[in-house]
Specification:
The protein is α/β, with parallel strands linked by helices. The chain is 36% helix and 15% strand. Strands 1, 2, 3, 4, 5, 6, 7, 8, 9 and 10 form a ten-stranded mixed β-sheet that branches. The relative contact order is 0.17.
């Protein structure tokens, strides 16, 4: 079982008054434990969502616990099912769907979390319109070394360039990046992942000898910046942030052939010892204010439709919900992907990863 190391953020240190219209909510009190992603996600989510929430709810304390991967978070929630120590969890949609089916997360209604009524329909749908909804949209991108790669990558098909042999890092399934890439390559080859992935498997098999690793450690962005590879798959939000931090050395491409939304959900644990505070946090995280702040800080696309028009257009343009980018997105029903994930994973291992050494 993953050990939880608590990092308390004390509301008492943040003395800003509660915002107008939140008087009743601000009376919510007690401590909650939030399990979510580590690293730059934690740093930026704390600054733009957790700390403002604490200002609005001065009687609440939030313990932010870095949870590792979504699979590791699911393991923690499962292990604590009889006596939950976690109240709120952010994880990818394929994993949260499994938790919903297992009865590990609680239902949330618009009556107790009004922000739910402002979400895009697809954001509610991923929680079957009753469990935790999407809290961020992201999308798969190709990241590359702009400094050392000439010509630059301009399309998904460029991954098959001979000069990139041994210089590519891909995240294979069950990593959700690999699942998304499968759908993208299937479309590139003229097929549809809802019918078959045969074309994607055949095409990716020919790419395998060019792949240096199918398990980038710590991630593809770092491998590029450290000069280990030249190209990798990645997520747009982190890639945009790293691109800014490296003065544009990291190139970020949403392929013209199309990309796929990656969805993170926010979930209240069933049996939470402080449900009122947990729901209050989820409601705030989905609010226009929080969604605007996080998108402008880290380029995750908002799931609150009412927030989108209020976000800096320059920030929106770097997400997948801008009109130009949204038109390229390939519809993927992640609930359905869960049903075939093991099959896709097995085919990758047998037919693609196995071909890497040939």
């Amino acid at each position: 079982m993953m050990k939880i190391a608590r990092r308390p953020l004390l509301a008492g240190l943040l003395a800003a008054p509660a915002l107008r219209g939140a008087n009743a909510q601000s009376r919510v009190e007690g401590a909650i434990t939030l399990v979510a992603y580590a690293g730059i996600f934690q740093d930026n989510y704390t600054k733009t969502v957790v700390e403002p929430f604490l200002q609005r709810f001065p009687g609440v304390r939030v313990n932010y616990v870095p949870g590792g991967t979504s699979a590791q978070m699911l393991g923690t929630v499962r292990a604590q099912a009889a006596d939950p120590q976690v109240d709120v969890v952010l994880m990818d949609v394929t994993t949260s769907h499994i938790a919903n089916l297992e009865g590990l997360f609680a239902e949330i209604s618009p009556a107790e979390a009004p922000s739910l009524a402002e979400l895009y329909p697809e954001a509610r749908a991923v929680g079957m319109n009753k469990f935790g909804p999407a809290v961020t949209f992201d999308n798969l991108v190709i990241v590359y070394d702009k400094q050392n790669l000439k010509p630059e990558i301009s399309k998904l098909a460029d991954l098959w360039r001979p000069d990139l042999k041994g210089l590519i890092a891909l995240s294979a399934p069950p990593n959700i990046q690999g699942l998304a890439l499968t759908a993208m390559v299937e479309k590139m080859e003229g097929g549809s992942h809802t019918q078959s992935i045969d074309k994607a498997i055949a095409k990716l098999k020919t790419l395998a000898p060019s792949v240096q690793t199918f398990e980038p450690n710590p991630d593809g962005y770092s491998l590029i910046l450290n000069g280990v590879v030249r190209v990798a798959t990645g997520w747009n939000a982190r890639a945009q942030l790293y691109s800014d931090e490296t003065n544009g050395r990291l190139g970020v491409l949403l392929p013209p052939e199309g990309s796929v939304f990656q969805i993170n959900t926010i979930n209240v644990v069933k049996g939470s010892k402080n449900r009122a505070a947990a729901v209050a946090f989820a409601n705030y995280a989905l609010s226009q204010e929080a969604q605007k702040a996080f998108t402008e800080r880290m380029f995750y696309a908002p799931t609150n439709a009412a927030a989108a028009p209020k976000i800096d257009p320059k920030a929106i343009a770097r997400t997948a919900v801008s009109p130009e980018n949204r038109a390229r997105m390939i519809p993927v029903d992640w609930v359905e992907i869960v049903k075939v994930r093991d099959m896709w994973n097995n085919r990758w291992r047998r037919e693609i990863v196995a071909a890497a050494g040939r």
